[in-house]
Design brief:
Length: 252
């Protein structure tokens, strides 16, 4: 069953067709990767799916409902979460506090109870911290809970962002280049973490340039070129597709 369906999606910036009549679907529980050369439209696609951009044409179906143009905070309530290519971490907060930010949908946000620090608010804050610590252990950075984010190594910050995205309890998680800037050992840790997230029942859509990681973990791969679908299929099918080899992977 498809959790996410893209139907005839297009996005035009002035005279630039960043995404052109794109259609594909993402099966529930799958790891679905989007690859392509720089400028292929991968991040634009993510920004359309997550509500940062409004499509020029086409539909974005989440569980069968068209959510094209829906603001990100409403999509979060519908079970969609994401990370960004460039870190979006609050460096003046602890690691645990960063993850707790992702729990805002589960907290009592009414003004009066918060101002009076009613027992329900205190209990909610305590539960949010406990869940944040669980997620930090899940992504392998439990030892940094009390550390300021500014003191954490880059690889740990990448996993911190994933923990914060998971704190919203998403059904669909979009990861924008989670291995960018990481060394081989850190990339292997991200590889294992993505598989762990998928095994937990969260559907993952991944944009990534590290082809070893993509080929290792993907159930399905979509290849973009100048905003158009160049190919799609399993890792084995994409690896041997002559159009993909010519445009992106390169011949040996």
């Amino acid at each position: 069953m498809a959790l996410l369906e893209i139907d005839g999606l297009s996005k035009v910036f002035g005279g630039v067709h960043a995404i052109q009549d794109l259609s594909f679907s993402v099966g529930e529980g799958a790891v679905h990767s989007v690859i392509g050369p720089n400028g292929a439209g991968k991040t634009t696609l993510f920004n359309l799916i997550t509500g940062l951009y409004t499509p020029s044409a086409g539909r974005i179906l989440l569980d069968g409902a068209d959510v094209a143009g829906t603001p990100p905070h409403r999509l979060a309530r519908q079970g969609m979460s994401r990370t960004f290519q460039n870190l979006r971490v609050c460096m003046n907060m602890t690691a645990a506090e960063n993850v707790m930010i992702g729990r805002h949908l589960q907290l009592n946000q009414r003004f009066l109870p918060a101002m009076l620090r009613l027992p329900s608010v205190v209990r909610g804050d305590r539960d949010a911290r406990e869940r944040a610590l669980e997620l930090m252990a899940f992504v392998g950075i439990a030892g940094y809970a009390a550390h300021m984010a500014s003191s954490m190594p880059y690889g740990a910050l990448k996993r911190l962002e994933i923990a914060r995205a998971l704190a919203a309890e998403p059904r669909l998680l979009l990861l924008d280049e989670p291995a960018a800037g990481l060394n081989a050992n850190e990339t292997a840790e991200i590889d294992a973490l993505i598989q762990k997230v998928s095994d937990s029942g969260v559907t993952v859509v991944l944009v990534e340039h590290d082809m070893k990681l993509v080929m290792n973990i993907s159930d399905h791969i979509l290849v973009l070129d100048y905003g158009k679908k160049l190919a799609e299929g399993t890792a084995e099918e994409v690896r041997h597709n002559p159009d993909v080899i010519s445009a992106y992977l390169g011949a040996a």
